[in-house]
Amino acid sequence: MSAQILAGEEGISASVEILREGGVVGLPTETVYGLAGDAFQSTAVARIFEAKGRPLTDPLIVHLPETEWLDRVVLFSSPEQRQLVGRLASAFWPGPLTLLLPKHPDLPDLVTAGSDRVAVRVTAHPLFQEVLRRLGSPLAAPSANRFGRISPTSPLDVQIELGDRIPLILDGGPCEHGMESTLVAIDAEPHENGEGISLNMSILRPGPITNDQLIQYGHVSVSQRIVNSPGSLLGHYAPTKRLQIIDLDIKGLIPNLQIGSYGYLAFTSPPQGIVKECPALEILSSTGNMEQAAANFYGALRRLDQTNVDMIYAEALPEQGLGVAIMDRLRRASYGSNHGTGHQLHGNLQP
Ligand code: TXA
Ligand code: MG
């Protein structure tokens, strides 16, 4: 089987038909492509796990047709909690923010891998929204890659990852953000004086919505190291080739790369020696624009992975704004290459 790639009305109606019958399809979102199935049909949800080769212990994000659907999939502990979450949702939805909240018992347990919390978001992608509107049911949708691999940011990426396992990919062109949504666990804590509650947000996966944007809605904490729990596995987003992060903070120095053939992932302008000699070079943004770098990131990594180089060197990016999310993905991509240490390669630089 090879998945059909369809655009426009033809693609939308074919997607809805397949989803209604409990099938799965590749759909575009503003972050990365998702592999979608009706969240209220357990067989559809099981098909998602099967197609991705994802362990049943790793829960799926539920994409809501609109914010009002929160009350059908989330069991709020109090009207105050509902109100605070509603405020947060109306600030960032539709958009690349996923909220981890108490699960409603009506939602099949398979979606959340038996967890009593559910991850929800409303995507801003007009094609995904139209499919949701016509289906009239939320869609469970993880990124449309095989488990542990690079997330797809174009229909062809989905075809490469899952083309032999799914019938259809809805063509929405390249993804706007190119980086998965920010995943935030929400807790509502009573105030110390006993009057009212406030939101505690814990960022489990950095993404397009940054810490600074969230801070005006409550207390934000950020995990300082890569968390190894279901949902944030260390070896995720990985190319098949070895990947090393290099710290090029001293401009003009060329890394002493003792290897015959390597690919190089540059942030802005790579060192001259690299430009002359490297057989596979990708530049994320020649102007140093972080949004552009994020949008190009997975595609560049995928292209480097498809060349015949022995390994990939990737420049560390400044960890500000979206740079936090990109570095999080780079560290995970390099994890297996570093014998489980997750450490960056510093130094080893020569003039
Ligand atoms: O931008 C995105 O979030 C994309 C698009 C398609 O919406 N989706 C996405 O899904 O990245 P996925 O499954 O590849 O990553 C979601 C992460 C996973 O690491 C998953 O384990 C975690 O969120 N997650 C989902 N539900 C959870 C839950 N109930 N508890 C803890 N972690 C959860
Ligand atoms: Mg994923």
What can you tell me about this protein's structure?
- The chain is of the alpha/beta class.
- Helix content is 29%, strand content 21%.
- The protein has ten helices and 17 strands.
- The protein has helices at 8-20, 42-52, 70-73, 79-92, 126-135, 155-162, 211-214, 272-277, 290-306, 322-335; strands spanning 4-6, 25-27, 34-38, 61-63, 97-102, 117-121, 139-140, 168-170, 182-190, 197-205, 219-222, 242-246, 254-255, 262-266, 280-283, 311-315, 349-350.
- Strands 2-3-7-4-6-5-9-10-11 form a nine-stranded mixed β-sheet, with helices on both faces. The protein has a four-stranded parallel β-sheet with strand order 12-16-14-15, with helices on one face. A two-stranded parallel sheet has the order 1-8.
- A hairpin with a 6-residue loop joins strand 2 and strand 3 (34-38).
- The longest helix is centred in the C-terminal third of the chain and has 17 residues, at 290-306.
- The chain is globular, with a radius of gyration of 21 Å.
- The N and C termini lie far apart (52 Å).
- Threonylcarbamoyladenylate is lined by residues 29, 31-32, 34, 58-61, 96, 98, 100, 112, 115, 117-119, 141-143, 180-181, 183, 230-232.
